Amino acid sequence: MTAVIEDPIVTSAKPRSQWLLFRRRFVRHIAAMIGLGTLTLLVVVCFAADLWVFYDPKLTSILEAGEGPSMAHWFGTDDNGRDYLTRIAYAGQLSLRIGFAVAFISTFVGASLGSIAGWFGGWVDELITRVVDLFLIVPAIVFLAVIGRKISEAEAFLWWDLGDEFLFYTIDRDTPIIFALAMFGWMQVARVTRAQVLSLKEKEFVEAARAAGASSTRIIVRHILPNCVGVLMVNLTLSIAGAIVAESTLSFLGLGVQEPQTSWGKMIADAKGFIGTEKVFMLYFPGLMLLLVVLSVNFIGDGLRDAFDPRSKQE
Amino acid sequence: MEPLLEVRNLTVRFPTDDGLLTAVDDLSFELFPGETLGIVGESGSGKSVTSMAILGLLPKYARIQGSIRFRGEELVGRVDQEMRNLRGRHIAMIFQDALASLNPVHRVGAQITEAIAVHAPELSDTAVRTRGLELLNLVGIPNPVDRYDQYPHEYSGGMRQRAMIAMSIANEPEVLIADEPTTALDVTIQAQVMEVIARIQQRTNSSMMLITHDLGVVAGAADRILVMYAGRQVETGLVDEVFYRPAHPYTRGLLASLPRLDRRREGQRLERIAGQPPSLLHLPAGCAFTPRCRYADASGMCGNRRPELHEVSATHSSSCHFADSLDSRADAS
Ligand SMILES: Nc1ncnc2c1ncn2[C@@H]1O[C@H](COP(=O)(O)OP(=O)(O)O)[C@@H](O)[C@H]1O
Ligand SMILES: [Mg+2]
Q1: Which domain does A259 fall in, by range?
Q2: Nearest residue CA, atom 5 of ligand 1?
Q3: What residues of B are in contact with residue A305 (Cβ under 8 Å)?
Q4: Considering the domain boundaries, does residue B227 fall inside one?
Q5: What is the CATH number of the domain that holds B191?
Q6: B247 C-alpha to center of ligand 2: Å?
Q7: Phi and psi at residue B250, in whole multiples of 5°?
Q8: Minimal-distance CA residue to ligand 1 atom 2
Q9: Segments in A167-261 forming alpha helices (H)
Q10: What is the number of the ligand 1 atom nearest to the C-alpha of B14?
Q11: Residue A287 three-state SS
Q12: Residue among B101, B125, B145 whose CB faces A8 most closely
């Protein structure tokens, strides 16, 4: 046996990458992996719709209206005779885009404002809290009805001119919807983050970091926000689902999606009338999609939180 | 010798709902290079407020008067930016509750090197890690390589406190403030941690303010002792002077409440100082200790005139009006 004498302190000085450890914990999270797989599949299926659909999503057919699932129409047809699966795929493009964009924007805005308010306190906190309250008491629907129509008129006019009216939603067309939903979606995150920061900043480890010479920015980024990840993840999950559903409300205001285009939220809203009839499947399919997305995101959020939080058992 | 840290007439007040609270009242002391100054006093006597004032970490609403000089430079009134350069590099702090003072979501290694990352951002990750492992080794944590990447909850209480010590000495500060470093620990662990602190201090040759409410802790570790009561300084002196010739009734009370092997053999009971510390909102006009003092005459000097600190010997002073005649007063009463 040869004894190789090594100085353990010097030989192991290579830093173990935080990112690597984080990734390993995340990859071992089974539920998160299933969620990620499902979500990826949904995204690919929806966004690659042009490649696989057999039907024109706008092609109506009175003869085939309101049929249940069959070999020809796996998810059946809607009451205009359009293939429901095709509709779901195209609707998913819009719903997914809006859901994620709104959730990320509102979480980002809410978390930023909330942590600023909680951290700095005083008049900054006062001001932000007032703004949050203001947005909470303004009836979003009424407000959006007023400004929403203006925005979407301008938008529609533009598209009419370009002759693109029949195209399904493009990214530019989503912008007012995303903007409108995010505008009324950030307050809850702001409140939760503020409360979290208020309690975290009194913690001794924050004092210890200060005593080590850390700046406010460093303390917020390194000590406060990582401890908020759990809360933010939960919120992100909820707001994706919330945004997908809320989008359908906007169509009433002329701001959301309009016929012949559709979204999962709108399909659910449209199918509500079929509860109790045999056409209730029209509610199930978009509902199922929404459920899949929400569950997937939830599982992924769980995995991320556990990967971030060292107290979780998986190493 | 020039003092490293010089506190002059430091007064700290907090506006509260019930009025102005005086947490530290006209406190003066100095800390010389390489020495350990024990600061002793009951809970609430203003020890932590004093250390926070030195680090510039008091809340904004605190009203601070007097002067704190570090290497001759005034710290009171400095902006946070300037104080940041000092904290964790020249003056560092060991906190009482290591579990609470470590962030649960970060590895211990990343936390003990925080002060390095802050003050020497140009260092490579490898260099920082090497230094971190050295530090863990220095404070006597076994298997530093494995322990470096663990989280605070995977450490025992004693190890966490060692990690806290490692964190504070990362940049070899000139002044170490240890605020009740062993209070949260078992007695056996306390001794080990004190040993680590003594060893570290010898190695880095830093000065230390060792804050505690337990005279027993400072007995073996400090060179000089400062006794505080209700935000005021009541006695300072070399360890032996304070222990063997206490010149203030409060110090005498503290000593009498200390468990001692020789006394136990004689069958004596531990004495506690009767009564409660005064409210910091309404301090007595005279000596703050009067209501609890066995030697005091409340209607005379003690109750009415605030005592000045006066010398008992060149290195020993007391703020008792009767510092020189305590023994004869004890016999009389
Ligand atoms: N931020 C603050 N606001 C108001 N009062 C405070 C504050 N910090 C400390 N105090 C008061 O100052 C006094 C001294 O506290 P402290 O220095 O923590 O005592 P200790 O000697 O136990 O460390 C206590 O009565 C405490 O309530
Ligand atoms: Mg204290």
Answers
A1: 18-308
A2: B14
A3: none
A4: no
A5: 3.40.50.300
A6: 24
A7: -65, -45
A8: B14
A9: 171-183, 187-200, 204-211, 216-218, 229-252
A10: 4
A11: helix
A12: B145
What gap in Å lies between CA B172 and CA B165, rounded to an integer? 11
Tens digit of each residue's pLDDT (9 = 90 or more) over B209-228: 999 988 888 988 899 999 99
**B286 Cα to the center of ligand 1, angstroms:** 22
Position in ligand 1 atom list of the atom nearest CA B231? 14
Q: Tell how far the Cα of B179 is from the centroid of ligand 2, in angstroms.
A: 7
Residue at token pair 């350069």? B85
- The pLDDT confidence band at residue A78, using thresholds 50, 70 and 90, is confident
What would you report as the CA-atom Rg of chain B, rounded to the nearest whole angstrom?
A: 21
Average pLDDT over residues B54-82: 94
- Interchain pair B104, A208: CB under 8 A: no
Q: Are residues B311 and B182 in the same domain?
A: no
Q: Is residue B265 part of a domain?
A: no
Residue A138 lies in a domain: yes
For residues B216 and B290, membership in a common domain is answered with: no
Q: How far apart are CA B235 and CA B172, in angstroms?
A: 30
B177: Cβ below 6 Å to ligand 1? no
Q: Give the per-residue pLDDT at B264.
A: 54
ipTM higher than 0.90? Answer: no
Q: Is residue A180 part of a domain?
A: yes
Is residue B199 in some structural domain?
yes
Number of domains in chain B: 2
* pLDDT given for residue B268 in this prediction: 57
| Residues A272 and A287 sit within 8 Å (Cβ to Cβ) | no
For residues B251 and B150, state if they share a domain: no
Mean per-residue pLDDT, B89-107: 90
Cα B204 to chain center, whole Å? 19
Q: How many domains does chain A fold into?
A: 1
* CATH number of residue A283's parent domain: 1.10.3720.10
Residue A9's pLDDT band (boundaries 50, 70, 90)? very low
Report pLDDT for A164: 47
Using one digit for the tens of pLDDT, what is the confidence trace for A263-296? Answer: 888 888 888 777 777 778 888 888 899 889 988 9
| A126 min Cα distance to partner chain B (Å) | 17
Do B74 and B13 belong to one domain? Answer: yes
Residue B130 contacts A where some CB pair is shorter than 8 Å: yes
* Coil vs helix vs strand at A96: helix
* Span from the CA of B75 to the centroid of ligand 1 (angstroms): 20
Query: B207 and B243 share a domain?
Result: no
Residue-number span of the structural domain to which B47 is assigned:
5-222
d(CA A162, CA B320): 93
Nearest Cα neighbor of B208 from B179, B176, B236 is B176
Verify whether the Cβ–Cβ distance A12 to B133 is below 8 Å: yes
Atom of ligand 1 at shortest range from CA of B51: 17
Q: Are residues B207 and B281 in the same domain?
A: no
Of the candidate ranges A244-253, B33-42, B80-89, the one whose mean pLDDT is the lowest: A244-253
Q: Which residues on chain A are in Cβ contact (under 8 Å) with B118?
A: 212-215, 218
